[in-house]
Amino acid sequence: MAVMRSILYVPGNNPKMVSKAPSFPADIITMDLEDAVPPAEKENARKIVAENLKYVGQNGSQVFVRINNWETGLTNDDLEAIVWEGLDGVTLAKTGHPDDVQRLDWKLEELESRRGLEVGTVKISMLLETAKGICNAYECCLASKRNVNAIFGAVDYCRDMRVKLTSEAVEQEYARARMAVACRAAGIVAIDAPFVAFQDIPGFEKNVAVGKQMGYEGRMIIHPSQIEPSNRMYAPDPADVEWAHGVVKCFEEEGIAKGKAAVSLNGKMVDTPVYLNAKDILAAQAEIDAKEGKK
Description:
- The protein is of the alpha/beta class.
- It folds into two domains: about 5-235, Phosphoenolpyruvate-binding domains (TIM Barrel, Alpha-Beta Barrel); about 240-290.
- It contains 13 helices and ten strands.
- It has helices at about 15-20, 40-50, 55, 75-80, 100-115, 130-135, 135-140, 155-160, 175-185, 200-215, 225-235, 240-255, 270-290; strands spanning about 5-10, 30, 60-65, 90, 125-130, 145-150, 190, 220, 260-265, 270.
- The protein has an eight-stranded parallel β-barrel, surrounded by five helices.
- Strand 4 (about 90), helix 5 (about 100-115) and strand 5 (about 125-130) form a beta-alpha-beta unit.
- The longest helix has 20 residues, at about 270-290.
- It is globular, with a radius of gyration of 20 Å.
- The two termini are about 20 Å apart.
- The model has no long low-confidence stretch (mean pLDDT about 95).
């Protein structure tokens, strides 16, 4: 699965910001056609996004576009404008029901077929940012084979719940946890909500740490200053990678090779779940190394 530690959002109607996008080391660059673009600028944004699909990803970032949700009546026009070569995925705003995702899947297949693109090429990301979306999270995550991640949209979720959004995020705990579990159960990546106090990097890092313990593996980024801490914190800790190498070597040589289900390493028991956890850590690091061109 592709690395998704950081997903930087760029207003689709801002040529200056779009032109800067390839210089940022985010795993995914998402050009926005939704909330960052006023109604009068939607058509202009579509043109700018379509013209820059290949350009934005030239330094290795995946290229996604956030499209307006079906209730707006803008979704078809968004898709007609931006489903071309160079597009890796679309993010459906305010996903509320699995039917929303299935309808998107169908439209993407129709466009891919019509335009000579390999069917299934364009992936789906969902923003779950309403009470309805959180209640239907698991079903939405399972609704299409194209699904690769779901993003918790805390700002719109709090507005929908009529509660105040805070950096402490206590008001988000239930929805945040429910969505992370739904993603894991469906086998896709959970992406945490934007942290709006973008100048508060210590607060951002604290919030990331809490989300990681819930199962989040990446972050929706609203400012380039958040990319570095996001990439660093969602990567395995170097100490954990070193530990994982030792566990795998010990268990394979002293356990599996000798018919044992548990072995001792540095005074601690290593059994199959510990071994598999170590393998997961090494696999995650290998994906990051491959993306960054390391040997």
